[in-house]
Amino acid sequence: VQLQASGGGLVQPGGSLRLSCEASGFTLGRYRIGWFRQAPGEEREWVSCIYNGHGRGFYADSVKGRFTISRDNSKNAVYLQMNSLKPEDTAVYYCAAVVRERSTLTAIVRTPCGNAYDYWGQGTQVTVSS
Predict the structure, then answer these.
(1) Is 81:70 a contact under the CB 8 Å cutoff?
(2) CA-to-CA distance for 62 and 35, rounded, in angstroms?
(3) Nearest 5 degrees, angle CA 99-CA 17-CA 86?
């Protein structure tokens, strides 16, 4: 299983994008989902995550107040609305699911939604530039 992130693109500073995280044959609504990003030459960074059930979202300080995470279980999707984008938001964005059973691909990242993430897929490029 791989979660697919989409919706990236080139946007000017101050602009907005909405990223989507989807998967076929996989019920996203059962899982806590996280968004991460990785800029060239940088380590992967946690951005946001959302619980299943109550759907509460959490954010890294760098994006708090600008990004909003949400989920639509009827569409089997999780979204990341990104507003007031800055050049430093430029990165490849990935989504992943919190898992209980770890595999060789499981990444251990301490977040408010959980510490073990898996089902990584290809990310989507977000470029913020004038």
Answers:
(1) yes
(2) 13
(3) 100
Count the Cβ atoms, other than its own, within 10 Å of residue 86: 14
pLDDT tens over the chain, length 130 residues: 889 999 999 999 999 999 999 998 889 999 999 999 999 999 999 999 999 988 899 999 999 999 999 999 999 999 999 999 999 999 999 999 999 888 888 898 999 999 999 999 889 999 999 9
Distance of alpha carbon 48 from alpha carbon 13, whole angstroms:
20
d(CA 101, CA 116): 9
d(CA 73, CA 76): 5
Which run of H or of E encompasses 103?
none
* C-alpha span between 130 and 116 (Å, rounded): 36
Q: What 8-state DSSP symbol labels residue 47?
A: E
Sign of the C-alpha dihedral, residues 16, 119, 61, 64? Answer: positive
